[in-house]
Amino acid sequence: MGVFSTGGVGLDLGSANVTICLENEGVVLREPSYVLTLRDDPDEVLGVGRDARQMLGRTPKDVALLSPVMDGAVADVEQATLLMKSLAEKALGKRRALEKNRLVVSMATGATRVEHAAAQSAVRASGAKKAALIRASIAAALGAGLSIEEARGVMVVLIGGSTTEVAVLSMNGVVAARTTRTGSLALDEAIMRYIRREKGLIIGQRTAEDLKIDLATALEIPMTEVENVTLRGRDARTGKPATAEINALDVQRAILPALDNLLESIREAFENTPAELAEDLLTNGIHLSGGGALLEGLRERLAAMLNIPVNISENPQDEVARGACIAASDDKIYQKLQLTGCLLEV
Fold first, then answer.
1. Residues in CB range of 69: below 8 A, 6 or more apart
2. Under a CB-based contact definition with an 8 Å cutoff, are residues 19 and 30 in contact?
3. Do the Cβ atoms of 20 and 33 come closer than 8 Å?
4. Which of 53, 146, 159, 330 has the highest CB neighbour number within 10 Å of its CB?
């Protein structure tokens, strides 16, 4: 540990959620990546995080609900900075929360130069005493406790809200990586489209997410276990309030195309792994991380498809923030990741 050992802060800046981890305390905050402002005056902030998301689908005409992070990248530098500052103040319980801390923020491995520059600008403006960006797949591996220092391959599949990263790590660096612009939010959108098309009912994203959490599975569903539930929404033809019956089979049919697309991208990345590291992966399997890893049956489905072990921790949605916090808190790890280019000071 170094001079910053009492102030390490790890922040996972995701499309769906912002997760903050503090040294010696662990993950203390996870809130949606939303900012609520006046439409004509974006500087007038009405709410951030969970407070802002409560207005999803309910905003008046003069209010805008913004998502500063899109497809795993910073889309609005000012609003992303505000989101980080506000949630950091909430997590640490004080104003100007980061001015005495070292902050490490996750960054998608497949970020373009423009996206990289936007992330740098947002993190630089956060007010942290010292700040850096870390590759999300490296952070996930650190947060999961995987050994990435040795000369052997470790594969991490990180399923976020809008992106999925498949990376092979070795000797504190990224040997091979592939990022696709699909994630768990694609399943929510697929459920919304299916219910409108098949049930004639319009539902919001929050309802779709609840259905995914409660009913979705990547495995076959026995007909004997199917039970109908009543869903409330708006009639697609009349616009009036309406209800419809739905069950787990409906949800599975809804997510199947998006799920197959997600699994296919993982399979292609696995097949393009360097031959020298393939044997390591067959022995050690792959590690499934990110909030999307929580989909019931995904681990079993992926293991059967690739015919190798698939491992998952108890809280995969926290691993990136935990790993970023480890890098922020430990000078030795921080410096090693700098040498491999997986951590960049801003």
1. 13, 14, 15, 33, 75, 80, 83
2. yes
3. no
4. 159
> For residues 61 and 38, is the Cβ–Cβ distance under 8 A?
no
Instruction: Confirm whether pTM is higher than 0.85.
Output: yes
Question: Residue 9 is inside which H or E element, if any?
Answer: strand 8-13
Rounded-to-integer distance, Cα 105 and Cα 81, Å: 12
Contacts for 332 with CB less than 8 Å, ≥ 6 apart: none
Backbone angles phi, psi at 5, to 5 degrees: -65, -15
φ/ψ of residue 334, rounded to 5: -55, -50
Contacts of 288 (CB under 8 A, 6+ apart): 157, 159, 298, 299, 302, 310, 311, 312, 316
Contact (CB, 8 A) for 94 and 135: no
Closest CA to 100 of 328, 334, 339: 328
Residues 312-341 have pLDDT tens digits of 999 999 999 999 999 999 999 999 999 999
Q: 9 near 23, Cβ under 8 Å?
A: yes
Check if the beta carbon of residue 159 is closer than 8 Å to that of residue 317. no
* Arithmetic mean of pLDDT, 40-65: 88
Phi and psi dihedrals of 196, rounded to 5? -70, -40
Alpha helices in 183-241 (DSSP H): 184-199, 205-215
